[in-house]
Design a protein that fits this description.
The complex is a heterodimer. Chain A has a domain of 237 residues. Chain A is built from 15 helices and no strands. The two termini of chain A are 17 Å apart. In chain A, 50% of the residues are buried. Chain B is mostly helical. Chain B has one domain. Chain B is 72% helix and 4% strand. Chain B has eleven helices and four strands; from the N terminus they run ααααβββααααβααα. In chain B, helix 1 packs antiparallel against helix 8, helix 1 packs antiparallel against helix 10 and helix 5 packs across helix 6. The chains are: A mainly alpha, B mainly alpha. Chains A and B meet through helix 7, helix 13 and helix 15 of A and helix 3, helix 4, helix 9 and helix 11 of B.
């Protein structure tokens, strides 16, 4: 492949991301004109999930490390921004044991969101260096254990988080426009990150750690900075999510949610941004349809008992099927490029 | 007196945890797969106890044996249906698959039985107490220790003196070379999964024996314990898993006594912080297996 072709290929890959970002906003406009409240809610939720998945993709997709802790950083961002943006009177009532200094603190929503992301990034920066030295099974178990530690702290530190109980009274801020705009911005950022020098080095360390080290890449440092960046996006996303949901508990940032985000990423293809977007879309649509079905089954009395867990069963089945069929995800490691059918020409590389 | 109680409690808890950890390592040793679905085999065993014990007149010993076999069968089935097709692909695909299998089994039970926990009727022998060396202790503690000793002896003999055992140890060492020597890969992996599920089944009997109830999330704690124990003991050796199980039992009992009441709710966080420290400082564990790279830099 010549240099000219490589540059052309890069422009094409970028074009796809720009098209996806534009499509996000376009759908938002269409929704705004024609759709009902329920659809707008679903679309907002989709955009928020997409944003979170893209943040996850930044580190997990480019480094090949299964990142369990990500959802914990989403939680940190959600709690930090909500604690800062909520009025003292509401916090006084909702979180009876909160430290007085925290109760008094209040910021406007935008700075609060930013601080949420920064707190998540800070925590990541403190704990990540040793974690990034581990690979393979030990790395997975360590990140898994870290998520459990974070969850225990979120549920037990009731001076800050209200413990396992619901934290409520967060202001509603994230409208569909903000969610779609933020998702589009993060989409472009994820692309920029992937193509940046840091992203390139990270991908090199994913494909062959030893070769990467041999050409002078400091694998631990590259992973570290990417992990912190990804956690920052996670924290921001968590804040936006919190200001959409308005009440939540530590349960929202644990195994279930981690599985959902990882499913979205893996189904579409962790290595590419178009894959992450496709995965988020498929899982969101499937979940909503199955929820409707579950609700219908429970309310109509067609069957005698209540239906729980149907959605999870279906999502897990879909995930296993896709992993067997295409272990790299539907899109695979490469970005979708235009025109689609030309991809077959260089099918020797990738995957 | 208190010391005697502490020792028996630690031994019984430790032998259960040793079995839990051993089951996980059997598969990990050969496939390098951290099987997130492992806890669900315990759950399947537990629900078999509940269904057969509540709705059928089958005698208790038979119920327990069937529960153990069900867990082993589930383990084999998941290997056949989910893990075998992705085995040759990437390690990550396999890991995510195992988590998906875990979610699938959990929610299948949620869907088919109930999200609430169910009481499991137990034979009287589980609740009786017995005095040993002047220490009064529940009979189930003694049963756990005896079972663990028998099983560990049996497995040691199997691994040391049978062709199958030697093939499995060889596969855990160098899988490719073992295949070149004519050992069928599918057979070795299937047997590893069956033994893993069998151990999970045995654990489910004693686990349910302690709480006398079963719920869809019952497998989560055994899974975590297996993680911690294998990490402490060493991921690459079967002996390490057993040592790790006992070490975890000791650590758990000691933390329960030593931690002040205000910090007891953070016990899990402490346990995992210890695990993380352990991984960072001594990633090969207490018992060093064969060399595999786990750290960069």
């Amino acid at each position: 492949m010549s240099g000219v072709q490589m540059i052309l290929g890069r422009i094409k890959a970028q074009a796809v991301a720009w098209i996806l970002a534009a499509a996000l906003l376009l759908v938002a406009i269409v929704m705004n004109l024609f759709a009902s409240g329920v659809l707008i809610d679903i679309y907002t939720y989709f955009c928020l999930n997409l944003l979170l998945v893209l943040g996850l993709q930044m580190f997990m997709g480019n480094s090949g490390i299964l990142n369990w802790t990500y959802v914990g950083f989403v939680g940190i961002g959600a709690y930090a921004s909500s604690i800062l943006s909520t009025a003292p009177a509401v916090k006084d009532m909702g979180v009876p044991n909160m430290y007085p200094a925290l109760v008094a603190l209040q910021l406007p929503i935008l700075p609060a969101l930013l601080v949420g992301g920064l707190v998540a990034a800070l925590v990541a920066a403190i704990i990540a260096w040793p974690l990034m030295r581990l690979s393979n099974a030990v790395g997975v178990i360590t990140l898994f254990a870290t998520l459990i530690v974070m969850h225990v702290i979120l549920t037990q530190w009731d001076n800050v988080t209200n413990g396992p109980r619901t934290f409520f009274g967060v202001q509603y801020y994230t409208t569909m426009w903000i969610a779609a705009g933020a998702a589009a911005a993060v989409l472009l950022m994820a692309l920029w990150f992937k193509e940046s020098s840091l992203g390139l080095r990270l991908r090199a360390s994913r494909d062959d750690r030893h070769a990467a080290k041999a050409v002078g890449i400091n694998v631990v440092a590259v992973r570290y900075f990417s992990f912190v960046t990804s956690s920052f996006i996670g924290g921001l996303g968590g804040g936006l999510w919190a200001h959409y949901i308005t009440s939540f508990s530590p349960k929202s940032f644990y195994m279930g949610e981690a599985f959902l985000l990882i499913t979205m990423l893996v189904i579409g293809g962790a290595g590419s941004i178009s894959g992450a977007t496709l995965g988020a879309a498929i899982v969101t649509i499937m979940r909503e349809l199955l929820r409707q079905l579950e609700g219908y089954l429970n309310n109509s009395g067609v069957i005698a008992f209540d239906v729980y867990g149907l959605t999870e069963v279906a999502v897990a089945l879909l995930m296993i099927t896709i992993l067997i069929w295409r272990p790299g995800g539907i899109v695979g490691g490469q970005e979708l490029s235009w025109p689609l059918w030309r991809r077959r020409d260089n099918s020797a590389e990738g995957e | 007196m208190i010391l005697g109680e502490f020792i028996i409690n630690t031994l019984s808890l430790g032998s259960m945890y040793a079995l839990v950890a051993l089951g996980l390592v059997f598969v990990y040793g050969i496939l390098k797969l951290v099987n997130f679905a492992y806890g669900e085999y315990v759950m399947v065993g537990g629900y078999t106890l509940y269904v057969l014990g509540t709705f059928t007149p089958v005698p208790w010993l038979a119920v327990m044996i069937i529960a153990v076999l069900m867990a082993a069968a589930t383990s084999y089935l998941t290997e056949l249906v989910a893990f075998r097709p992705v085995r040759t692909k990437s390690l990550d695909a396999m890991l995510v698959t195992s988590f998906a299998v875990s979610v699938l089994l959990q929610n299948a039970v949620l869907l088919l039985v109930s999200p609430r926990s169910r009481a499991v009727p137990l034979p009287a022998i589980f609740s009786q107490s017995v005095a040993i060396f002047g220490v009064v202790t529940p009979m189930r503690n003694v049963l756990t220790i005896v079972t663990a000793v028998l099983l560990l002896t049996g497995l040691t003999l199997l691994m040391k003196y049978t062709v199958l055992g030697i093939a499995m140890r060889a596969a855990a060492d160098k899988f490719t070379t073992t295949r070149l020597m004519g050992v069928p890969a599918n057979l070795v992996i299937s047997v590893a999964f069956i033994i893993s599920g069998f151990l999970a089944g045995v654990v489910s009997v004693f686990w349910v024996g302690r709480s006398a109830s079963v719920d869809p999330l019952i497998g989560f704690t055994p899974l975590l314990i297996a993680f911690i124990a294998t990490v402490i003991g060493g991921m690459n050796s079967l002996v390490g898993a057993v040592v790790g199980g006992f070490a975890y039992g000791l650590l758990f009992n000691a933390l329960s006594i030593l931690l002040p009441a205000s910090l007891i709710s953070y016990r899990d966080a402490f346990m995992f912080a210890i695990v993380i420290l352990f991984l960072l400082l001594k990633p090969e564990g207490l018992i060093r297996g064969n060399y595999t790279e786990e750290r960069v830099g």
